[in-house]
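Long-time lurker. I teach an intro course on protein structure, and each term I like to show students one example going from raw sequence to a predicted 3D structure in token notation. This year I'd like something fresh instead of my usual example. Would anyone be willing to generate the tokens for the chain below so I can use it in lecture? Attribution to the forum is fine with me.
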Amino acid sequence: MYTTESQNEHLGDENTPSSTNPQILKDSSISKHGETKETVLSQTEETKPQMEKKSSCPPQGNLNKVITNGVVLFMIWCVAWSFSATEVLPGGNLFGLLIIFYSAMIGGKVLQLIKIPSVPQLPPLLGMLLAGFAIRNVPLLGDYIHISNTWSSTLRNTALTIILIRAGLGLDPRALKHLKTVCLRLAVGPCLMEACSTAVISHFLMNFPWQWGFLLGLSISFVVGAVSPAVVVPSMLLLQENGYGIKKGIPTLLIAASSMDDIIAITGFSTCMSIAFSSGGILKTVLSSFRDIIIGVLAGAILGTFVRYFPSEDQTKLTLKRAFFLLSMCVSAVLGSHHIGIHAAGGLCTLALSFVAGVNWSTEKIRVQRVIKTAWYIFQPLLFGLVGSEVSVASLKSNAIGICVVTMSLALLIRIFCTFLLMCFAGFSFKEKIFIALSWMPKATVQAVLGPLALETARVSAPHLEPYSRDVMTIAFLAILITAPNGALIIGFLGPKVLARHDPSKINVKLTTLELH
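-- Reply from a regular --
Happy to contribute to a lecture. Here you go:
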């Protein structure tokens, strides 16, 4: 009895674990299934907002960006209207500036979107120029776009100031030292040769009188002769990145010489214009021009020395403070010199100030250049839009365009030939000399500033010279329209075919390694 009961108890104890094991397995399987279900649900919940985000009602991506930018532009107009209601309405100065600015921005963006296979990208400034030209010559729209000469002159001179600041900061003493005479020959020789040839051609083709026509012809040539860094520099940087011509430093040479070329053209234009439109004697005008040059250089050197050390390097927001000093001082110098009557001093003061200030800035100089470049992005559409709006098809003579194109073409051929000759003693091959000569033809930035300035000076100082100055404006417009896209295409097509290619990682392309003489 006892034995039987004990055995049954023993069997019951043995059967207990066996009865619990299925339950444990069942519970574990349920828990695993639950965890898997929770994981799937959590992943579904995580992906659900993303799916809803893609199909959400507020637009995202490019559409949202377009709407945002459109509202920003509209609010700018609203703020301007709240300050001056009449100026932002049709016929007001602000209304005209806003229309030209928006149209130029759209024209530049549209040209950037036009991409043709195996064809280099056209410069956006060409689209900005055509946008301003279209606004002026569309019958209904042109009747409501009016900008006073004072506003237009101030904006163009401000754009000129930014160009000069960038040119002054771009000059590197070590680059000029190692490039030696090649850079000087390339910057000075073709510009002066084109200046003299254009002065002679303008007398025979455009009927400029000899007594002051030579000086005005020089002014035209300095307007047309300046090379545009806005076209040359990006094209050369692209060739340099791909290794074309870097062994002999051809891209670096053209980049450095383009800034010097602009400086010479702007200085020569200011001097010749002050002499041509002066009411006094030639000797007195020449002496006053030298006086303006000395005043500008000395003032720029003094102010540049101040900006070099103030603010000091231990201050916060150093880049913004230095950029502010450069912009404020240079704009005041250029615009103030016009009010005082010493026109040539302002530009030279800007060049000297920016060059002297940036000598010891080392890496900080690059940051300041970026801030100045941002300011240029704002004034570039205004500049080229205003230049395009100055050209009216109705006011042009029947043969004006043809004569201007012939004058510009002859002067350009002389410039190309002169550039080829000056490069004959610099150690370049025949193909490389051809490439440098043809690359020295794109024109845009300086022409956009100086072309309207000649017309504006004639309207104020010498109304009887306005027809000739209008020809200067027409030549400047045609020079940008013809040489800027063709120059970019020539550099893009001819560079890879003519220049030798080397690995950029194996060749030091710094200015200090150039062996040019």
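Some talking points for your students: The two ends are 125 Å apart (CA to CA). Residues 219 and 269 are 5 Å apart (CA to CA).
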